[in-house]
From TrEMBL:
The keyword Cell division does not apply. PANTHER family: PERIPLASMIC IMMUNOGENIC PROTEIN, SLR1258 PROTEIN. The keyword Heme does not apply. It comes from Futiania mangrovi. This is SIMPL domain-containing protein. Transmembrane segments: none annotated. It holds the Pfam family SIMPL. Keywords: Signal.
Length: 243
């Protein structure tokens, strides 16, 4: 057999094998006997903690004067927080800065380089309030004492882990319910669980609602509505399938 004839023979043999493989049924592997289903569950709860970030910005002709004025106002804020019933361990410094303040003539239609006119000192603290009906009162007290910056307020649930455990069990039950529907429709049964993967649903989601005011005195405070938080869990469960 010549080299050319051998090449034609080999090419024909390969084509025949490919054709034979195309018409033969594929052998079942382990993945054909498994089913993966995602289950979801949510629980809602009313927040019982509020974290408020607030502080004092103060300016002075010199850096020392700005820091001294800031310290005076911040001390008054700490005293107001204590008087409002906030324990010292619930107050933590989150930021302290000192920056120069410049006058920019071009912003006022004048010529000339920037000119140093003073300094600004900033002191920020995070305050945790665990009595939700006192959040507005605490805010008002700090502002009256000298706080002139409020960077935000966030609410949280102290028993979030316990509530999420309930959601985990419900999410697995949801996955099993759906998996049993598919298995029954396919004429098979669920076997043992092979794997469970959890995914948090992006963190607590607030669901806002109006906060009831119990008295005229409460209406005088800054209104704050903690609403409800939705805690979500998703789980992916992998089962074996049995005949």
């Amino acid at each position: 057999m010549s080299v050319m004839q051998f090449r034609h023979f080999a090419a024909g043999l390969a084509l025949g094998l490919l054709t034979l493989g195309a018409v033969q049924p594929a052998l079942a592997d382990d993945d054909d006997r498994r089913i993966a289903i995602t289950g979801r569950a949510e629980v809602t709860a009313v927040p019982d903690r509020a974290d408020v970030t607030l502080g004092v910005d103060a300016e002075g002709k010199t850096a020392a004067a700005a820091m001294a004025e800031n310290a005076r106002r911040m001390s008054a804020v700490f005293e107001a927080l204590t008087a409002a019933g906030v324990a010292r361990e619930k107050i933590g410094t989150t930021g302290l800065s000192l920056q120069p303040v410049y006058d920019y003539p071009h912003q006022q239609g004048r010529n000339g380089p920037p000119r140093l006119v003073g300094f600004r000192a900033s002191n920020m603290v995070q305050v945790r309030v665990t009595e939700m009906d006192r959040v507005g009162k605490v805010l008002d007290a700090t502002v009256e004492a000298g706080a002139n910056t409020i960077h935000g307020i966030s609410f949280s649930v102290s028993e979030a882990d316990r509530l999420l455990d309930t959601a985990r069990a419900e999410a697995v039950a949801d996955a099993r319910r759906k998996a049993e529907i598919y298995a029954k429709a396919a004429g098979v049964r669920l076997g043992k669980v092979l794997r469970i993967d959890e995914a948090r649903g992006g963190g607590p989601q607030p669901v806002y609602r109006a906060m009831a005011m119990a008295s005229e005195a409460m209406r005088a405070d800054t209104p704050v509505a903690p609403g409800e938080q939705t805690l979500g869990i998703s789980v992916s469960v992998l089962w074996e399938l049995e005949d």
